[in-house]
Design brief:
alpha/beta; Rossmann fold; 13 helices
Amino acid sequence: MLCCQSGSQVILSHPAFTFALLVVAFAAVRWHIRDSYKVSGFNTKHVLITGCDSGFGNLLARQLDLKGFHVIAACLTEKGAADLAAAASTRLKTLLLDVTDSASIGRAVKFVSEEVGERGLWGLVNNAGRSVPIGPTEWMQLEDFTKVLDVNLNGVIGVTLLFLPLLKKAQGRVVNVASILGRLSLTGGGYCLSKFGVEAFSDSLRKDMRPFGIKVSIIEPGFFKTAVTRLDLIEGDLRRLWTRLPQDVRDSYGPTYFDEYVKSQDFSMGILCSPDISKVTRCMEHALTAFHPRTRYAAGWDAKLFWIPLSYFPAFVSDFVINVLLPSPKGKIN
């Protein structure tokens, strides 16, 4: 024991160890200072945000409006647009946008082009998204995957491609909202697939657009209370998926599986979902205002300390965690 203690003391007092600590401390301070540098002229910059009816997009729009940005908030519904306009300054503009409709995207490009002029578009935040249908893979049909992929992935790609000319004019920013479920697949359906896709698309885009001065950041939120995690919507759609399954498939899961699945999901989401969505919008704001935006932002302590580290573990470890959160089928096929 004394040998161990004396050995540790020797290591801690060694000049090389002291030097290494100083290097780490210097690097951390330098990174913090570099990370704090901001761009100037917020009041001359235009930012387009999709999915502003509620949640992250809505809060970010109001947040940037207060800082003086010219915010163009894209909403899916007229009510969402009207409510947001009433809560912001006259500087904020709203438009209706369905990211799955190419004609709707085209109209948005025309509107934004007229707003930004030769200055170009400083920021594009691809925030619009949906979660349902989500659940066990066998419960899905192809169109269930398509519903989610069309919004979360194809919508991101379609919007980004058409706005790149305006972003190149301003040497602006693209901020894509992925998820910790773009690192770790917890369940079936199109949501995890789409977020893995957003990660890949963003990485490719970042490398391709670097010569043009465009910077691309990925937001990876943990679990937050938004429309995407509304349990009534998720459970209602899960029941739809379950009831349309052939009887032999339902039998293979066991008679109590659906109720157990819903209860486990309710319990897990109740523990995991944070109501403080500003943790996400602060990351988005930094990506738009920092002189040196980060490539990836882990939003929420569960993302930083649990989910993203877990994604680097061997599969059997993450499988074990998922099996703790959700039940396994108890039935057997005869």
